Amino acid sequence: MRILLIGAGGVGAAFAAIAARRDFFEAVVIADYNVESAEKAAVADDRFSAARVDASSADSVTYLCREHAITHVMNAVDPRFVMPIFEGAFAAGADYLDMAMSLSRPHSEAPYEKTGVKLGDEQFARAEDWESVGRLALVGIGVEPGLSDVFARYAADHLFSEIDELGTRDGANLTVDGYDFAPSFSIWTTIEECLNPPVIWENGEWRTTPPFSEPEVFDFPEGIGPVECVNVEHEEVLLMPRWVDCRRATFKYGLGDEFIEVLKTLHKLGLDRTDKVKVGGVEVSPRDVVAACLPNPAELGPRMKGKTCAGLWVIGKGKDGAPRSTYLYHVVDNEWSMQEYGHQCVVWQTAINPVVALELLANGTWSGSGVLGPEAFDAVPFLDLLTEYGSPWGLQEL
Amino acid sequence: MRILLIGAGGVGAAFAAIAARRDFFEAVVIADYNVESAEKAAVADDRFSAARVDASSADSVTYLCREHAITHVMNAVDPRFVMPIFEGAFAAGADYLDMAMSLSRPHSEAPYEKTGVKLGDEQFARAEDWESVGRLALVGIGVEPGLSDVFARYAADHLFSEIDELGTRDGANLTVDGYDFAPSFSIWTTIEECLNPPVIWENGEWRTTPPFSEPEVFDFPEGIGPVECVNVEHEEVLLMPRWVDCRRATFKYGLGDEFIEVLKTLHKLGLDRTDKVKVGGVEVSPRDVVAACLPNPAELGPRMKGKTCAGLWVIGKGKDGAPRSTYLYHVVDNEWSMQEYGHQCVVWQTAINPVVALELLANGTWSGSGVLGPEAFDAVPFLDLLTEYGSPWGLQEL
Q: Given an 8 Å threshold on Cβ–Cβ distance, is A262 in contact with B284?
């Protein structure tokens, strides 16, 4: 297996640090628009090399694949670049993995009721082409989407006879020393995903709601405790119902009431806008100004404290037919990930899952063709290998 | 009386519209840095003329005073320009009026406990000079400070034998059609005054508190209803105890919980900063970006609905020695002020008070020398003349 890792940002660099400890691959070419970031990440292992790539250009991706005889393209950049990388890998005859999916566009008339273009629609429209040439695009294989989808498969196969709801629930108790307010992830992206109309699967169809709908306090395990969660647009809701029978699928993000209030305020004041406004003699995008006023999340690892939890709350009937409500989850402590890998817990937890998936593809445990989500594969070997990597998952009856 | 009105912004233009209906003066020279604004305001009356002024230059003010034989300088610009206008008037031998006072600077070590340089300190430091030449500087004669201070004098002379608290309370129920969030006054100035340490007079001394302290729901009269009020730095607290015996003096602003949340969020994200940050290739002040994203308050009058209330809550013992709690207030309905004068209620309510004061000075009812607040004069003729102008005040026992 020869991997082209596109993106040497937070998640890409953590991917490299995790992969460096495994022997299932022959080479990883780490490519970034900023070649110095790629070179920095590539020092971790002799099998790593660095390259420059323009992720907005399918040709640039295809060229690199051919140059390095790439078998698998691992997309670790911003979802704006999903389609060119996906197409570039296809043209080069390589398999493809990402941790998000192609972007949505709201319904033009009823954005908070009906879906327009959904997350992943552009990729699924190409599924037959991938299948016909026997190539695999494994989409949404980070932690959420990713591990959450593996949990859905596991619940359906081994825990439940009937599923009412597959509810992904994400929460953390992270704090950052020295800052009143310091998001541990890009505020630009958070604004984007939280202000898009959240999508819900219910009774055989997808629909949308207004942002921050259906607030719910979820009690997260391992000492994180109760966090206010709200509906957010996320890939799981589009992936799970394609392979796992369920009456309802939701994603709720434990933003906490403080963060929700900040996002609502930014929207109310028009500070989430990406188009430019005139300010004195210059023009700037207000959202860029907001990002410039906050600390860079990639540099916060050493000041962060606490744990992050990704998981899936499954409600339905157990194998014995009795009502069952179970939370399957994965917690990472920032102190541990910083000490073990030098990467903060949020990016580390995202990055470990595609490494596990690639190892299963390399040794033939997982195989397939077409555009598939993580729930299209057997969950047990994935969860076993995750535990073998030193990062076990948990299960709690609710 | 020959008046130099400096500033043809919202309040200055409303001052001109109100003064045009009175005959106590010979001439008003309306001066602004932007001479077109001055010319626009000057068309209201034959006795008005327009001029250009640099309000940051005392010499520019003195020159205009001498050129037009000015007897009274009326300062209607941003409080950053109080000192040059105050000094320029003094040098020209003119009397002076303003609607704010010279600015404060926080205590360097304990900003939220102790006062540093207080509002008006720089002006009061010059009081003897004004007194020795027999000239008057009447400071803080808008609505708040201004009418609120007149109420303090009235309460002490006619309603109370002993005063525990002089609590200015300002609230409104204004909405702006077509906007989720549209402040009816400058967001730049509101951030400045609300994020400065609020000052309180208690037991014979001034002290400060953290911003937004001592939240209290005050029930405003004439249908405005309950509004959340918090401590804000304001001139009344510095003025009233100099002339009126009281155990405590406070100012609480009915910002409402939504506006308070917005201001706290802007501060938390560093978006209240006035120094410039780099954003891509340009540099901007985040507070200017916030202002640029919001509608211009001067243009909102026709879309505004509701009433604004300024007043003073007095707690103590009545003339009969029994406990008494009375709110003295002045309410302006935006629909009325727009129809009658073409100016929105917040600026109109500010502007009427210095016109009334100038009329009392012109006819000799009020006289004095030195640096004096409105509470240094007899309140009754002021309140009677305000009513005669068609804008009566009210009184409510609480």
A: no
